[in-house]
Every structure is written in structure tokens, then in C-alpha cells.
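> @MW can you paste both from yesterday?
MW: sure, first one:
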Amino acid sequence: MTPSRPGYGNRVRIIGGKWRSRRILFPDVLGLRPTGDRLRETLFNWLAPHLPGSVCLDAFAGSGALGFEALSRGAGQCILLEKHDKAYARLQLNCDLLQAGNARVIHDDCQRWLATPKPPAAVSEFDIVFLDPPFDKPVMASTCTLLEAGHWLAETALIYVEMAADTDITLPANWQLIRQTRIGDVDARLYLRHSAA
């Protein structure tokens, strides 16, 4: 894509829901790679029965494509975590433009935030979590461990994992793979959490 303004001309389209066809901007940030339309459509078809009223976490928010798509399609709340200054600032602006009052953008490193004990009643347990970190950062397995160890997940949470194809990772034993697809060099998986034994 050719930016119309330096660093801020990249666009991603919200596919469905109340903000359908709205386009949001995101900056040029190394490793920021929004989930493509085709894969996002597949994912949200998987999630459709579970989205209304759900509490979501977009853990490596980047453009916010997953978090805003979830809110557009009926999620009750979504926290968008982003550590990069420019991406965070743009997410805040996109929240304002969409009037997304049920979105909360947090400027922090995902793993540091998850490792910090949550204040009582400050954040509900998450029903749906989106994990799509930069492919060159080996943080997926450790992030999943933090989600489980920190009691961030609802009893039957759904966790979406997006990573480079053929990546070998170990995830919590009580997460059951229920959906999987591959598009090009991207592997997409949806896990259902069961209560830890």
C-alpha cells in the first residue's frame, strides 16, 4: 500500500457488524501485520455464536482489526493492548472515530501487563482472546502460560492463535484445538479452554 500520509496511510476494513465497511488507519510499525480479510471472515464465522456480550482481549492489538471487528459484531467489551507508541496513539484515535465506548486501549507490553496481578474486579475474565503477535517474536507460548497462570480466562474461554505456518509451540494442556485453517504462510487456530485439573 502507498501511504497517503507518511506512516499513517495503511488501511484495514472492518468486515461485518455495525461498523461494516468502515476503514481504520494504522501506522508503519515493524512486525505490524493485520489479519487479512479472508482469514478474519473465517475466524468471525467460528466465533459468531459466542460474540454477543463477550469480554475480549486483543493482546497484540497492532491495527486493532481483531478487537474492533469483535466489537462491531456484538462483543460487550474489548481491551486492546499495544506497546508501540504510534500504534497505541492510532488505536486511541480510531476508538474516538468509531465512538467505541466499550473499547479500552492500554499502552503496555502484553507480557508485562499479564504478569502484573490484576486488581480485584478491575478486569473481568476474558471470554475470547486474540493472540497475533509479530511472527519474528517468540512470545506465543509464554503469553499463553501467563493467561492461564494469571487466571485471566473464563472457564470456557476461546483463544485464537495466529502464527507462521509450521511453527511448533507447546500450549496449556487444558486447551483443546477445535478449529484450524491455513491461508498461505499463516496458521490460524481456535482453542477452547477447559478448567485445569
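MW: second:
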Amino acid sequence: MRAALLAAAALAAAPAAAAPEIEAIRAEVRAAGVYPFERTRTITDTRNGGTRRVEVDRYDPAKPEGQRWTLVSVDGRAPTEADRRAHARAVADQPIAPGPWRLDPLLAGPAPKVTRSGAETVYAWPRLPKGSLPTGRFDVTGNLAAEVFVTEAGGRPTVTRMRVFAPEPFRVLAIAKFDTLTVTSDYARDASGRLVLTRQETVQDANFPGRGRGVMRVDMRFRPLS
């Protein structure tokens, strides 16, 4: 009896198996690897009066680390040296470039809640796996939930959208406070059937020491270069 109880307890404590569709997507993006891309990033921030800044940069995974990002233009002009330094600081806080390869660690959590509506399936996680969304100096994944929208394309499960969000306000080191934080990523298959990231939008309403409180919106459009 004791052995049976122990076995039952161990089974209850073990994480449930992930959905087969999720595992198929994770395997696909691992096998596909990282591709070069061009990104158009539009940034607006109410803390600086809502001014708009448009940057175009490129990422090449074949280059040595520290040289993979290239700033192409800022507001339609050639970047200045100050622009390049600011861009270098910004991308340094992105240990992993955005792309479908990011789906692998983000989807590695326990079995999700599954909701089906017609041809679309929604997988929801109340918390992201720790360390799955590196943000440079801080790991805020414990404060974030996720929803992934999946349909079938070409006989394969295909992510069309992933939404990462903070279910409630949270603080970082008891200094910065996020009232809201949402990252929405849109995916599609290209002509070759490869899953690619097409757009990503980040919206945060936060209060940072020395910068004050405000809403920052970053809209990014992606164009694969290979």
C-alpha cells in the first residue's frame, strides 16, 4: 500500500506531457536554426512627448558575436556615431535575436491549457519557464504568462501569433514598476514553407528611476534576408 501511495504521489508531482503540436513546433524551429533578417523598428514613448523614431537594422548570425547587428538608418537618414552607440547598447540587452527560434524555450513549460475554436487552437501558460525570455540584466519571466495561437498549414501545426503578457503589475528589484507589459508576435510561413517572424509589438506602461512613468510602444517589422 505504501509503495502504491508513493508511486501515485510521484505521478501526481511529475509534469504533464506537453501537447504533441507544441513539441512538433519546438522541434521544427530547433532544426531550422537562425536566419539573417532586416528589421524596421518604430519606437514611441510618452516620456519624451510621444516623439516617433524609426530605425532599420540588420542581423547576420554568420558574423562574430558582437558584430551581428548593423544599424542601417535612423528616421530615413544615415546613422550618426551617437546613433550607433545607442543602438549597440539596445541590442546588447537582447541576448537572443527575435525570431521563431525563440519559440523553443518559451514553449518549454508544463502542459498548457488548451482551447479549440474551429481550425484554431489556443495554448495558454499561466507562467513562462524561468530564463526563457532573457532581457539582459534581469529575468522577469516569473511575472509573465503566454498564449499561443496555432492552426494547420501544409499539414503542419503552425504558430500564427504568440502573446506574452503580465497578468498583473510587477516590480523589478523593488525599483522599476511595470503596470502593464505585452509582447505580441505574428508568424507566417514563407514561400518555402519556413516559419518566419513577420511582426512583433511591445507595449509597456512602466515607471523607471530617473526616467519617470510612461507608455513605450515598439513596433517591429521583419524581412528575412535568406
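> thanks! DSSP finds four helices and eleven strands in the chain.
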